[in-house]
Amino acid sequence: MKKFLINYIPAVHEGQVNSNNEAYSYRVEIDEQFANRSENDKSAGLAAKDSESGLWKRFRFDGIQSAVAI
Questions:
Q1: What is the DSSP annotation of 2-70?
Q2: What confidence tens digit (pLDDT) does each residue in 33-66 have?
Q3: Which of 32, 11, 30, 29 has its CA nearest to residue 21?
Q4: Distance between CA atoms of 4 and 69, rounded to whole angstroms?
Q5: Predicted confidence band of residue 19 (pLDDT cuts 50, 70, 90)
Q6: How far apart are CA 36 and CA 32, in angstroms?
């Protein structure tokens, strides 16, 4: 897996709606893309393992502000 620093604007952050559209940084290891079947979108984003927490997160492509390889 490749490591990246992703700046991302999530719809929900830590269980709270991100009504201010704030961007957050995540150090992750990218694994694979995911589809959004309800919108018939074959590649809506990517799945990645958070390097700090070890939890898996999903990032929609339309919310990613930047991704830098580290």
A1: EEEEEEE--SEETTEE-TT---EEEEEEEEEEEEEGGGTEEEEEEEEEETTT--EEEEEGGGEEEEEE-
A2: 666 666 666 667 888 999 999 999 989 989 999 9
A3: 11
A4: 4
A5: very high
A6: 14
| Cα–Cα distance measured from residue 34 to residue 58, given in angstroms and rounded to the nearest whole number | 8
- Amino acid identity, residue 41? D
Q: Which residues pair with 3 in a beta bridge?
A: 29
pLDDT value of residue 43:
67
Determine the Cα–Cα distance for residues 43 and 23; give it in Å rounded to an integer: 22
